[in-house]
């Protein structure tokens, strides 16, 4: 699947408004844990450093080059420590500590959405507009076993994603880009070629060189190589589905232990050579990750000093937000420890163009005209929680179209209804994942539609299967007369193509796991996508071309963007070098230190 959806990832699920009833109990429980933690290596009293609001967004919060200590991390769900099996950005952030890729995200403040070389010597070269890519590995890089990391290890790690019967749960972009539909590759566990030749589209002429031959040009291919699923795995250490229990490190730390109760402990990897790594500073001696914590538990740990970083990507909870303006009695105000960022998750309405009456663009225009985004924003918690948007372009990706932020226009909506032959309105079904916030937004939108005679039945559907089978199957959508889908959408990496193509490219429509929820199939838009890909190499021309794609797609009315989520990150008391890693909506663990 091209993008991570609000369908079950812990970094998006259940983060707001559900905690008031248990807050007091959690305070007591966490308070005991905190008192024990503060009596340890750091003493009973900790100085609290602020730095001011958003200090870690464009700068470094509490800069320091001091080494040592234990970095204490909290999070919710951890799906898998196997780099080819995780689809949670918070886990991807953690993997930067023990997993290296050909390229990775920059640690420079304000530019963390940009790529820099990691295992490779550069960002890759392509002689033919993105159809063929070549990378060269650095010299001297090693696994924790002491074995050198070779091009064949990188290839093998990528091949594991093709073993859909064994390695499941992670991104499959490499499969889409590198597989041969006429002769599909089944992965390394079923490779019966003589001498195990492996995936034919990846060539390794020597220990340091890799050449990728893609099915079609992909200018964003280096971003695919930045996913942990593209990291090296030594074949002789691969334990298949169990590899996540003890993954072999290529980074500055190695997984020492993991337990459902005590969490995950990472210790220094003595084979890591900082001279070969321009990204990671690895200041702490040890990293301890407490997993499975609720949002309130994570907040309380940060507030009390028993945690330094929350990598869940969910940000602080409503009770903590309410405390931001409190008088702290001379101590550093909580607001000075907050970094507020958009998380590039856009909530939108998709109007399937093959479900009547939304086969008519004017009926779709009626919905777009009557939507009141300000009211939706309030349901989502107000400006601190959501930013209104009318564009198919997340604010974290630079160069998007200007957002006019139009107000609701019932008169224009009624005129559009008359144009599409439905002056009295019509009945339809509004499908939404069965989660409190989503259902509340759906009910708000249904109320707005009712003002012009559109009677939308809000139908909450099973959240875990919502995108895979409920709205991911076009036949099922038509059979159930679903005319509106309330969805959330974000991309695997921060480029306009990664965000737009799965939604609006008519050639991306599929019968299983379909992500073009509106079934938008417009040859003009498909041509604009091809032109945008062809413009790669000229950043300004590329952005302009993708803006055309976004503008044309929005004009069809097949998608009605509503709001983009915002997240408030709280820095722990001991956190040093707090740099907001935009792609993961958290502080960068690769450069974080502690007092």
UniProtKB/TrEMBL annotation:
It comes from the Bacteria. GO terms for cellular component: ATP-binding cassette (ABC) transporter complex; periplasmic space. GO terms for molecular function: peptide transmembrane transporter activity. Residues 114-507 form the Solute-binding protein family domain. Residues 228-249, 382-411 are annotated as: Disordered. Pfam families: SBP_bac_5. InterPro entries: Peptide/Ni-bd (IPR030678), SBP_5 (IPR039424), SBP_5_dom (IPR000914). GO terms for biological process: peptide transport. This is Peptide/nickel transport system substrate-binding protein. It comes from Geodermatophilus africanus.
């Amino acid at each position: 699947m091209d993008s991570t959806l609000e369908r079950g990832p812990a970094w998006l699920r259940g983060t707001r408004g559900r905690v008031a009833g248990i807050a007091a109990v959690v305070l007591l429980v966490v308070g005991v844990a905190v008192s024990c933690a503060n009596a340890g290596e750091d003493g009973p009293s900790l100085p609290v450093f602020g730095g001011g609001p958003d200090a870690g967004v464009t700068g470094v919060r509490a800069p320091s080059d001091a080494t040592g200590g234990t970095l204490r991390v909290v999070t919710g769900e951890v799906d898998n420590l196997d780099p080819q099996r995780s689809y949670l950005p918070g886990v991807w952030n953690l993997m930067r500590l023990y997993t290296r890729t050909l390229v990775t995200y920059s640690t420079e403040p304000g530019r963390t959405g940009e790529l820099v070389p990691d295992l490779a010597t550069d960002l890759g070269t392509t002689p033919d507009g993105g159809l063929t890519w070549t990378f060269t590995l650095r010299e001297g890089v090693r696994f924790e076993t002491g074995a050198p990391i070779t091009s064949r290890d990188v290839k093998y790690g990528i091949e594991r994603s093709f073993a859909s019967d064994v390695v499941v749960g992670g991104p499959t972009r490499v499969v889409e880009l590198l597989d041969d539909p006429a002769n599909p590759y089944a992965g390394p566990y079923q490779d019966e070629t003589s001498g195990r030749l492996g995936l034919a589209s990846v060539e390794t002429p020597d220990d340091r060189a890799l050449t990728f031959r893609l099915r079609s040009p992909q200018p964003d291919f280096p971003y695919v190589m930045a996913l942990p699923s593209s990291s090296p795995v030594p074949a002789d250490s691969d334990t298949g589905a169990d590899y996540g229990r003890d993954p072999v490190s290529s980074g500055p730390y190695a997984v020492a232990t993991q337990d459902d109760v005590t969490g995950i402990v990472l210790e220094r990897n003595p084979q890591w050579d900082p001279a070969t790594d321009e990204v990671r500073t690895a200041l702490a001696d040890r990293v301890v990750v407490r997993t499975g914590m609720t949002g309130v538990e994570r907040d309380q740990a940060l507030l009390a000093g028993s945690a330094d970083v929350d990598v869940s990507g969910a940000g602080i909870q409503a009770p903590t937000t309410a405390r931001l303006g409190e008088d702290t009695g001379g101590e550093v105000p909580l607001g000075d420890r907050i970094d507020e960022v958009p998380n590039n998750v856009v909530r939108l309405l998709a109007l399937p163009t093959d479900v009547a009456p939304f086969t008519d663009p004017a009926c779709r225009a009626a919905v777009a005209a009557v939507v009141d985004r300000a009211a939706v924003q309030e349901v989502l918690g107000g400006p601190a929680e959501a930013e209104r948007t009318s564009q198919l372009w997340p604010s974290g990706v630079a160069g998007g179209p200007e957002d006019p932020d139009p107000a609701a226009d019932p008169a224009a909506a009624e005129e559009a209804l008359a144009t599409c032959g439905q002056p009295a309105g019509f009945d339809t079904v509004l499908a939404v994942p069965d989660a409190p916030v989503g259902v509340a937004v759906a009910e708000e939108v249904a109320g707005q539609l009712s003002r012009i005679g559109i009677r939308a039945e809000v139908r909450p559907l099973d959240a875990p299967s919502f995108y895979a089978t409920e709205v991911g199957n076009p036949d099922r959508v038509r059979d159930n007369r679903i005319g509106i889908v309330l969805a959330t959408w974000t991309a695997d990496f921060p480029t306009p193509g990664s965000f737009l193509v799965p939604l609006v490219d008519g050639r991306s429509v599929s019968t299983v796991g379909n992500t073009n929820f509106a079934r938008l199939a417009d040859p003009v838009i498909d041509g604009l996508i091809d032109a945008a890909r062809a413009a790669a190499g000229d950043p300004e021309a590329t952005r302009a071309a993708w803006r055309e794609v976004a503008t044309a797609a929005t004009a069809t009315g097949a998608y009605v963007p509503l709001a983009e989520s915002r997240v408030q990150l709280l820095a722990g008391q001991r956190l040093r070098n707090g740099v907001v890693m935009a792609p993961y909506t958290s502080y960068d663990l690769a450069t974080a230190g502690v007092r």
